[in-house]
Amino acid sequence: MIKVSDEVRTALDEGRPIVALETTLVAHGFPPGEGVAVGLESERRVREAGATPATIGVLDGEIRVGLDEQELGRFGATARKLGPRDVAAAVTQRAVGATTVGGTLAVARTVGLRFMGTGGIGGVHRGWTQRPDVSSDLGELARTQVVVVSSGAKSILDVPATAEALETLGVPTLGYRTDTLPLFYAAHGGPPVSARIESAREAAEIARAHWDLGGTGVLVGNPPAQSLDDVDGLIEQALAEAAREGVGGQGLTPFVLSWLHRESGGRTLEANRALVADNAGLAAEIARAIMQQ
Ligand code: PSU
Ligand code: MN
To answer: Rounded distance, CA 49 to CA 203, Å?
Structure first.
């Protein structure tokens, strides 16, 4: 069911650092065509930091770990969005499917990959008291020994509620040179992290200790380099628009992201692009630091 590329297989066999990357943001996180460039840039940053990228997705029913440029190009808007529960159906039905953070972790765990970079993880959606929409990214973090580097949780969510859920699930939140969980587009104003760290090495040491103690996922929050501090109003408008159009469930995150990209005049798009690549690079540094322990 799973096809690991030669490059990733060699890195696994030789015990070299590997960073898993998702395909949902390639297929559904950016305007048509632009996601592939973001995926390639993430891979470049992983290599630049001395690790091997392993981009994960499902092509014609085959779970792929490590994709070339042409294969990555197949993850367009028509690809299914695959959370952990959706992978088996995509395999059986020979579909093309882009894995979310949770879907990617489900595959990474099976293959033995322990590091991942993404933009912002999914979490507890606003309005959860009416409808408990909680991303399966959280459940998967709770059952996988992995370090995920992200710019915190997407601020389109209820971020304080997401931080509480992470605590309940026993997932440490490590703030990379920050005391608060980044808000995806914005660096400041989020809930406190469980520990602040100053270096990739420190993240590696804490992850190692956490795993030795039987712990599972570790979330590293990397604040975006250019913080957009004025998009809150736009986010509320985007969510109201989604509600008006009856968009919910799996379609909500892609709808809101593309609405923001359009209505911010491309500012959220630029910020999103930069932070995804930065997080891939930091994940690679942490992966290397663990290997050197
Ligand atoms: N980060 C981004 N863009 C994205 C996502 C993350 O910068 O599109 C995706 C990830 O795949 C994440 C998913 O797992 O959004 C969460 O979706 P949901 O809220 O439906 O679980
Ligand atoms: Mn959801």
So the answer is: 16
